[in-house]
Specification:
The chain is 43% helix and 18% strand. With 130 residues, the protein is of the alpha/beta class. It has one domain: 3-Layer(aba) Sandwich (Rossmann fold). The mean pLDDT is 91.
Length: 130
């Protein structure tokens, strides 16, 4: 597993309550965290930072997480950064649509804190061994 505190996570989420919950969980696990509340803010952050993992809300107002994921994966140097979708879209086919859009994993809302930590650790460990 990756060592907490050494991994930088970008969380893209427009809902302040969801950001607060995930922030509290990840900071308690000693991860470094940057937050973006829109696609535009995400691109600004990615100009100067290279996160080890991105948590992506799918339903956002300016650009949905599917399109934003595809754009990030197309950016030079970001194709191997794991992107985990965090979404309330839990109908049949939504998980597949998320993975087809380029997300590497899928966490459904409401967020299970233990599952969130497990998934983050799993994808960071995979990346460390890649």
């Amino acid at each position: 597993m990756s060592e907490p505190g050494k991994s930088l996570i970008l969380y893209v989420e427009d809902n302040p309550e969801n950001r607060m919950l995930v922030r509290r969980v990840l900071l308690a696990e000693k991860y470094s965290l940057i937050e973006a509340s829109s696609a535009q803010e995400t691109f600004e952050i990615l100009k100067s930072k290279r996160p080890d993992l991105i948590l992506m809300d799918i339903n956002m107002p300016d650009m949905d997480g599917y399109a934003l994921t595809a754009k990030i994966k197309a950016m030079q140097g970001f194709d191997n950064v794991p992107i985990l979708a965090i979404t309330a879209n839990v109908m049949r086919g939504d998980r597949e649509k998320t993975l087809e859009a380029g997300c590497d994993g899928y966490i459904q809302k409401p967020i299970d804190i233990d599952q969130l930590v497990r998934e983050v650790e799993k994808f960071l460990a995979r990346r460390a061994h890649a």
